[in-house]
Design a protein that fits this description.
Helices cover 68% and strands 1% of the residues. The two termini are 31 Å apart. It is an all-alpha fold.
């Protein structure tokens, strides 16, 4: 396979972009994560996901204005480098790359556990290795293969949630008088806020974890067909997807059975998923097997997207001069082959870790949330710098963010709240690690003194 300096190819069609964006809004945070939040927040989890969805949408509009104006690889790392400064681009890019190395490792680990639900005798490492080979092969081929894989993985998730909503609505509308299935379950069992507003407030960090990956659409800009048209369309539909897939789904499901009749355990336990518990309590016992298939699909989707995001971010860092130039090379199909292989090899360490220390990666969620929220803050700050430059040049953008700069400061205030919640809820070390990590990255930046090409 010959390698040469070329550019990424625009092989992602509108349907790919739409489903990548949609898939980014649906993951294990909905199917499993809600089981950790409902006992603390009760029905107010619905409001929590609505708030989280609004913040995610505002962040996407900040990012969207920049990527529609300049559809390049690396997304917000490129913009941080260009409009904020060289170290900002260095830090943002490597933050995101490390984030998705960790996300890919944790999701790949989860895949093995979901396979064990059906075949407990299959070693986790064997399942991990099998899917590692498949997803790595997909990401080493033309970007169209990634787009098709993510399209169909997302289709499964979307159809599953819509089916649950329709079936749940049918059960609710056809329930007999005196049945436990009634919309009054949303406020009859201790109120909408059964543990007060604090019950919801201290679950915000877990809620926001569910929206991690929604910014992935920014990574597709350099390979999207007609990005000026397709990306705004996908971003503007984010808010409706969240209303349907999170708010409506949970409103219907929590109407079927009183929330306080559900006995939750570990969020890692499939049988403790609110979706499985509600349908099982209504006598639909095959729900666990169906959900296991859906969650396995969701985990593979996140892993597949993590591999894609890692390679494209590393490619962009190399173009900026913030990573070795070898990672800026693409093959004749337009795939950043070296960046893909290097990221894959690091993720491969997950197989080794699972073979020797099966539970090593289970606590990665704490670090992932911290880096994720930090990246969101940097997107909004970068957007402020971008807008200042556009205003200075007297330039009007085609897809302006909503209510600049008010929404930027709303996002930054919300991020500060999330850090506070994390510190209060046992995530202290993740919060403390962030400034240490930033200082360490600054030291690395100064020592390496990466080259600094001018970005047009």
């Amino acid at each position: 396979m010959s390698e040469h300096n070329s550019s990424l190819q625009r092989g992602l069609k509108n349907r790919h972009i739409q489903l990548i964006a949609m898939g980014g809004a649906i993951g294990t945070g909905l199917f499993l994560g809600a089981g950790h939040i409902i006992p603390q927040a009760g029905p107010s989890i619905i409001l929590g996901y609505a708030i989280g969805g609004l913040i995610a949408f505002l962040i996407m509009r900040h990012l969207g204005e920049m990527i529609v104006e300049e559809p390049v690889a690396g997304s917000f790392s490129h913009f941080a480098y260009k409009y904020w400064g060289k170290f900002a681009g260095f830090l943002t890019g490597w933050n995101y790359w490390v984030l998705y190395i960790l996300v890919a490792m944790s999701e790949l680990t989860a895949v093995g556990k979901y396979v064990n639900y059906w075949w407990p005798d299959v070693p986790v490492w064997a399942s991990v290795f099998f899917f590692f080979l498949i997803v790595s092969a997909i990401n080493l081929l033309n970007v169209k293969f990634y787009g098709e894989a993510e399209f169909w993985l997302s289709i499964i998730k979307v159809v599953a949630v819509i089916s649950m909503i329709v079936f749940g609505a049918y059960l609710l509308l056809t329930a007999d008088i005196g049945s436990t299935a009634t919309i009054t379950n949303l406020w009859a069992q201790g109120g909408f806020f059964p543990h007060g507003f604090d019950g919801l407030f201290y679950m915000l960090a877990f809620i926001m974890f569910a929206f991690g990956g929604i910014e992935l659409i920014g990574m597709t800009a350099a390979e999207a067909d007609n990005p000026q048209k397709n990306i705004p369309k996908a971003i503007n539909q984010v808010v409706w997807r969240i209303l349907i897939f999170y708010v409506l789904a949970l409103a219907i499901l929590l109407s079927l059975v009183p929330w306080n009749q559900l006995q939750f355990g570990s969020a890692d336990n499939l049988d403790k998923s609110p979706f499985v518990m509600i349908f099982s309590q209504m006598g639909i016992h095959w729900a666990a097997h169906l959900l296991n298939f859906i969650i396995l699909t969701a985990a593979l989707s996140v892993y597949n997207s993590g591999m894609y995001a890692n390679s494209r971010m590393l490619f962009s860092l190399a173009e900026q001069g913030n990573a070795p130039k070898m990672f800026a090379k693409t093959n004749k199909q337009g795939t950043p082959i070296n960046a893909s292989l290097f990221s894959s090899l690091l993720i491969f360490s997950c197989v080794v870790l699972n073979f020797f220390f099966e539970d090593t990666l289970k606590h990665l969620v704490y670090i992932i949330v911290g880096i994720l929220v930090l990246n969101w803050a940097m997107i909004s700050i970068t957007h402020i710098r971008f807008k200042q430059q556009m205003i200075k040049l007297g330039k009007t953008t085609s897809f302006p963010a909503l209510f600049y700069p008010v929404t930027n400061y709303i996002v930054l205030a919300f991020v500060a709240v999330i850090f506070f919640v994390m510190a209060k809820q046992g995530f202290e070390y993740a919060v403390i690690l962030l400034p240490i990590w930033t200082i360490a990255m600054f030291g690395i930046y100064k020592v390496l003194k990466p080259s600094s090409p001018s970005l047009k």
